Amino acid sequence: MRQLISHIFQMHTIFIVRAILLVVGMVAYVLSPFDLIPEAIFGVIGLIDDVLLAVIVLFSIANGFYTAYTRRQVERMADLPGDEGVVLPQEGR
Fold this sequence. Notes:
By secondary structure, the protein is an all-alpha fold. The protein has one domain. 70% of the residues lie in helices and 0% in strands. The chain has helices spanning 2-31, 39-42, 48-78. Helix 1 packs antiparallel against helix 3 (48-78). The two termini are 26 Å apart.
């Protein structure tokens, strides 16, 4: 049981650190004057890469949260008495 709690905490910590790093990187890129499509040259069209990056980062964080939530629900279901046949999804994508 102690190993399970340790594993869950480690995975939770990894997810939090990853989400923070993604957001910090996204903010740094959006505020940076160096872009794939610079706003100074292309105007409003130059915001496309910034918006696209923000959408990708936010979807990535949402996907990680959803995966962690569903995994936790499956693990809780597996702990219920009489549910020995529940198969947990495998790690790694």
